[in-house]
Amino acid sequence: MPPLLTIDRVSLAFGGVNALTDVAASVADGDITAIIGPNGAGKTSLFNITSGFYKPASGTVMFDGKDLLPLPAHARPKLGIARTFQNIALFAGLSVLENIKLGAHAQLKANAGTASLYLGPAAREERDVTAHIENNILGFLNLSEIRHRAVGGLPYGVQKRIELARALVMQPRLLMLDEPFAGMNANERLQMATYIRRCVTESRTTVLLIDHNMETVLGLSSHVVVLNFGKVIAAGTPDHVRTHSGVIDAYLGAA
User: pTM score, two decimals?
Assistant: First the structure.
């Protein structure tokens, strides 16, 4: 099968600094692909291009055969692309359920008038979203018992799960995770890795992730792309990347 996401010869510069240079990568449908590399290697820049926050100087980004680059950021979730961010961006005063509901806004069809008056279509859409969250997401991520609690007082690891839930409410084909294991202890990382793997096996979601915890990333991913100074220096299976001399010198270090 052709890749779900294809990035071809993408370059990006900020002033005189080249953030990405002729980057090429592909994400197979139904796989977990990781992008790794040192700080400043261009990983988040590549995410920002794919999700529509940056426009590259050159190159193409194709999703399921469709050119993403002409599309604004807000149009990409409607194609089935969801993303989390490196820093938690939840609304502390809202409940867990309310925060998760916000993830569905890009796919709602109600216009400003029906939504503000809460007329039939808008009410039905909210009921459908709530039912989907209740039936398919809260239990899946072990959040059912705290659905009505304010997010602000919850532990960091739980908030990371809520961010994942907010992305999953869109029922994405491509789930982009920016440092999903950052700040977690070993048990929390293991739990998050299990949830991510289940997203693929049970929900047929394709995952593209960035993270610095190599033990977790290499154990979870089936394909790894390594960036250094904005260029791809290696790509392949975790075993290939783990033993690649260029990757060891630039990032992993000798054992």
Answer: 0.90
In the CATH hierarchy, which top-level class contains the domain 1-80+172-255? alpha beta
**Delimiting residues of CATH 3.40.50.300 domain(s) in the chain:** 1-80+172-255
User: Given this model, what pLDDT does residue 30 score?
Assistant: 95
The residue with tokens 């610095």 is 212
Residue 112 CA, distance from chain mean position: 28
Express each pLDDT in 65-76 by its tens digit.
999 999 999 999
Quick one: the chain helix, strand, coil %, rounded to 5?
Answer: 40, 25, 35
What single letter denotes the amino acid at residue 218? L
Contact status, residue 19 vs residue 230, Cβ threshold 8 Å? yes
Which of 252, 76, 233, 92 minimizes the C-alpha distance to 170? 76
Strand partners, 232: 227
**pLDDT of amino acid 254:** 54
